UniProtKB/TrEMBL annotation:
Keyword RNA-binding on entry: no
Function, in words: Mediator of sterol homeostasis involved in sterol uptake, trafficking and distribution into membranes.
Entries under Pfam families matching the protein: Arv1
Membrane topology value: Multi-pass membrane protein
Record-stated family: Belongs to the ARV1 family.
KW Membrane (keyword) present: yes
Subcellular location: Endoplasmic reticulum membrane
Name of this chain's protein: Protein ARV
InterPro entries: Arv1
Main localization category: endoplasmic reticulum
Domain of life the protein comes from: Eukaryota
Residues that span the membrane, as ranges: 115-139, 151-174, 207-227
Key words, A-Z: Endoplasmic reticulum, Lipid metabolism, Lipid transport, Membrane, Transmembrane, Transmembrane helix, Transport
Amino acid sequence: MAELGAYRCIECNREASELYRDYQRGVLRISICKSCQKPVDKYIEYDPVIILINAILCKAQAYRHILFNAKINIQGKLCIFCLLCEAYLRWLQLQDSSQNTDPDDLIRYAKEWDFYRMFGIASLEQTSFIVGIFIALWQMRPEMLKKKSDFILLLKALLLSSYGKLLLIPAVIWEHDYAPLCLMLIKVFVLTSNSQAIRVTLNLNQMLPWLAIFIGLVLENGTVCLFQKMGWNV
């Protein structure tokens, strides 16, 4: 049996020692939460596609399942892939604005360097955004971030909830007149997912996560302004 606090009830967010009990011979019984008297995690019986749909709908129960009970550890790879998608979008927009069609090797090398530069800028912007959120939450609710594990869990939640950035690639591939609107909607979706992840992780009301995200955006935009003053296209 797992130790108390290893899992969370997806309904009331109370700690639980187990998700189900195995009676062997294929007989499993989902554990019932002692606090709300509901199944600790009904999603353990659900197909991953259903869980993903519920996560897209920003249901708190789906987020609690993913963050506390599913033991998913792909946030690092997901973060890198999302940054690559964002860097590719910026790099493509930069190439569209350039009229130079010279096939010279030096030009191709410069274009390749532009992609690496865009990846670095996207990484610094996301770092600024996350740091801003941590600073805001630390100032508003320092008791919520007492231990190193609290910081790690919140970082994991923010990285996983940024999965919406993967939609940037289809938005670029199927380019049309509404591409700017699509990119704006993707941004709103990612921020909404981030807000829900913060709320679920720290068990906050809906206002504080959005305030923390606002501070994160201010710091991120400050980083953008800094790059622009340096003469870099971002």
